[in-house]
User: Fold these one by one.
Assistant:
Number 1:
Amino acid sequence: MAVNIRMNDELAGDLKALAQETGRSQQDLIRDAIADYIRNYKLRAFAPEIRHMLKPATNASPELMTRPQRKLPEGVTIESMLAHERGEGAR
């Protein structure tokens, strides 16, 4: 998809300088910036002081999405496993 982007002279100069400094094309830098903005957009709802501790979700690979679920042994539940971990076994 082709897109026209209008920017002021200062931003255009900064983009050109960054492209020269990094050896990447201006188009590549713009694509990366847009992708990063979209990926991090939802983090804007959080206070700036904690944003660095959060990581946006990534899409799971198709292999993970189709991997068969493991079944618990007969008579074992999540609750019983948590109780065991807490040391709350049968009394």
Number 2:
Amino acid sequence: MSNSRWILLRRGIPLICLGLATACNLGLGDPNSTGASSATPFLPEDTATSTATPTETPPEPTATPTETPIPLVYPVGPSGFPANVNPLTGTIVADPALLDRRPLAVKVTNFPRTARPQAGLSRADILWEFYTEFGNTRWIAMYYGQDAEKVGPIRSARVLDTRIIPLYDAILVHVQAFETVWQEISKTGVDTINEFPASCPAICRDPDEKYIENSAFGNTAELTKYARRIGLLAAGRPYLDGMVFDPAVPADLKESIGTRITFSSSAMAQWKYDPERKRYMRLSENASFLFEPLADRMTGEQLAVDNLVLMVVDTFRYKGQTGTGEQFDMDLTKSGKAYFFRDGFMLEGRWQSGGPNAPLQFVDADGGMFPFHPGTTYIGILGDRATGARAASSEWFFYNAL
């Protein structure tokens, strides 16, 4: 190599090193070094040296695809409900696993009036109300598609309960019963959860209640756990087909602002349609026999439902009655007149048996299935001699007669 070439090579070394810093091992005394560009600049081929290798730029993270909820196409029912739709309300449930249990039918008192406002009624899928005895009514609050942290006050069962509950494969939740009622529970095969031996946390006593008879309350999630523990929850879903739901209002309905129901001279109910909320709001008689809003003590809001049904049913004295107290029975194996209220309208139709272990069915005057508004339903049961009439205000008045 000539001196001129060596000088030029040496002059270029500092410039290269500035750019390659730690990667350079120049070997300036090596006369064979040519300064040619390579993967490892200026390194002899037989020299093993750790070098910085370029790394691949990681790809931009991509969003995990999520399933787009499929909107529910109405009408739905009376059978073939999608797996995430509650057949008692026609609505999508937040937790479809809840539909793998049996409904809980909780016996809730309505008298004495000091038991009001009740807790948890607004969370029920179906609310049943009927005359029991001595001027009083009681509720069956049926829970299936959602839970209620506190339901009650829970009171004793009646023979009438054993006619409704088997139709929905429900579990009766109550606090004690008359001996004759226990006999009917046994005869009809109704599964029950009584305060004892269930106890807390399934059914607890509220020490803040003034009257001990109105101090028992249930927690439906805990009641479900207890039912599973004692073997009341079989595999698979219960058969609850029978109702049809559709947000579209059927034709030929009569406008109605709601209804008043006189179950007895001391037990009266009023449901008024609220066009803004598009729901029926509950009012009950007070000690002065004036109507006042009935709230749910858990929410502080007025009790409301989406549909009303008034059923006229063959009701009679219980044949197995002992003593002089009132005990009533009813026949749900046939059919009878029914009045349906939804979306501020009313339609006269019929209720009919769906079978010995199947939910009731509700049909219009032509025998077609009546479509309920998706949501919760109130069912009031009246005796076969009950009367109903529409007032000029479009409010319907019903008078119970057994």
Number 3:
Amino acid sequence: MAKKVQTFHIYSEERKREVVRLKLEGAGLICSSTNILELRAQMAKWIKKIQRGESLKDQRGVWNRKHFSSLEKENAYWKVQVEWLKSTSKFTREGIILKSEKFLIMDKLRKKHPFAWLF
């Protein structure tokens, strides 16, 4: 049985913008036959990101750290995260939490803490 080998290509932001521009103008893309399928699959995502005004920068391996204005706010955030994990661990069945139980836990925590801190 053959193993699936997956390779990831890293394209510069300029290259991505150029490909999207060519696609939107209706110009044909000149690429190698092995590369065209991957570009075609990625192009829709790139177009949506550009239309939403998002960056095309590669985010793989980048941790999205939250920035807090004070140490007290950061400590409060982490306390909420720990409380969430403790409360969900009571309701897990083989590592799965039912959706209804998840919403009950969120309602309890929402009364104590800002909703944005729950995730």
